[in-house]
Amino acid sequence: MKIEILGTGCAKCSALEAAAKQAVAKIGGFHSVEKVEDLQKIMDYGVINTPGLVVDGEVKSTGKLLSVDEIVAIL
Questions:
Q1: Which sequence positions are flagged as catalytic?
Q2: Is residue 28's pLDDT more than 90?
Q3: CA 72 to the chain's CA centroid
Q4: What residue segments make up the domains of the chain, in order of their start?
Q5: In this structure, are residues 47 and 9 in contact, taking their beta carbons and an 8 Å threshold?
Q6: CATH T-level topology, domain 2-74
Protein backbone atom coordinates (compact mmCIF):
# COMPACT_ATOMS: atom_id res chain seq x y z
CA MET A 1 0.00 0.00 0.00
CA LYS A 2 1.32 3.44 -0.94
CA ILE A 3 0.33 6.26 1.40
CA GLU A 4 1.04 9.86 0.42
CA ILE A 5 0.77 12.92 2.63
CA LEU A 6 0.11 16.04 0.57
CA GLY A 7 1.31 19.33 2.01
CA THR A 8 3.93 22.01 1.80
CA GLY A 9 5.44 21.55 5.25
CA CYS A 10 2.93 23.16 7.60
CA ALA A 11 2.55 21.88 11.16
CA LYS A 12 -0.67 19.97 10.32
CA CYS A 13 1.02 18.32 7.35
CA SER A 14 3.92 17.14 9.50
CA ALA A 15 1.52 15.92 12.20
CA LEU A 16 -0.51 13.96 9.62
CA GLU A 17 2.67 12.36 8.32
CA ALA A 18 3.62 11.29 11.86
CA ALA A 19 0.10 9.95 12.49
CA ALA A 20 0.18 8.00 9.21
CA LYS A 21 3.49 6.39 10.18
CA GLN A 22 2.02 5.43 13.57
CA ALA A 23 -1.06 3.98 11.84
CA VAL A 24 1.13 1.91 9.52
CA ALA A 25 3.11 0.61 12.51
CA LYS A 26 -0.17 -0.26 14.24
CA ILE A 27 -1.57 -2.31 11.35
CA GLY A 28 1.75 -3.89 10.42
CA GLY A 29 2.88 -5.02 7.02
CA PHE A 30 4.97 -3.30 4.40
CA HIS A 31 3.48 0.04 3.46
CA SER A 32 5.26 3.16 2.27
CA VAL A 33 4.52 6.62 3.62
CA GLU A 34 5.72 9.42 1.35
CA LYS A 35 5.51 13.18 1.85
CA VAL A 36 4.53 15.08 -1.31
CA GLU A 37 5.42 18.78 -1.17
CA ASP A 38 5.41 19.56 -4.91
CA LEU A 39 2.48 21.93 -5.51
CA GLN A 40 1.90 20.63 -9.04
CA LYS A 41 1.58 17.04 -7.81
CA ILE A 42 -0.79 18.17 -5.05
CA MET A 43 -2.89 20.06 -7.61
CA ASP A 44 -2.86 17.01 -9.92
CA TYR A 45 -4.81 15.18 -7.19
CA GLY A 46 -7.32 18.05 -7.13
CA VAL A 47 -6.44 18.90 -3.54
CA ILE A 48 -6.83 22.54 -2.59
CA ASN A 49 -6.81 22.29 1.22
CA THR A 50 -3.87 20.54 2.82
CA PRO A 51 -2.99 18.30 4.45
CA GLY A 52 -4.20 15.58 2.17
CA LEU A 53 -4.14 11.82 2.62
CA VAL A 54 -3.86 9.65 -0.49
CA VAL A 55 -3.95 5.85 -0.39
CA ASP A 56 -2.94 3.95 -3.53
CA GLY A 57 -3.62 7.01 -5.69
CA GLU A 58 -7.08 7.75 -4.22
CA VAL A 59 -7.63 10.91 -2.16
CA LYS A 60 -9.13 9.87 1.18
CA SER A 61 -9.03 13.13 3.16
CA THR A 62 -8.24 16.80 2.65
CA GLY A 63 -7.95 19.83 4.89
CA LYS A 64 -7.97 18.13 8.26
CA LEU A 65 -5.66 16.41 10.68
CA LEU A 66 -6.78 12.82 11.17
CA SER A 67 -6.07 10.80 14.30
CA VAL A 68 -4.09 7.57 14.17
CA ASP A 69 -7.29 5.56 14.67
CA GLU A 70 -9.08 7.44 11.86
CA ILE A 71 -6.18 6.64 9.53
CA VAL A 72 -6.21 2.97 10.59
CA ALA A 73 -9.94 2.84 9.73
CA ILE A 74 -9.21 4.30 6.27
CA LEU A 75 -6.39 1.85 5.62
A1: 10, 13
A2: no
A3: 12
A4: 2-74
A5: no
A6: Glutaredoxin (3.40.30)
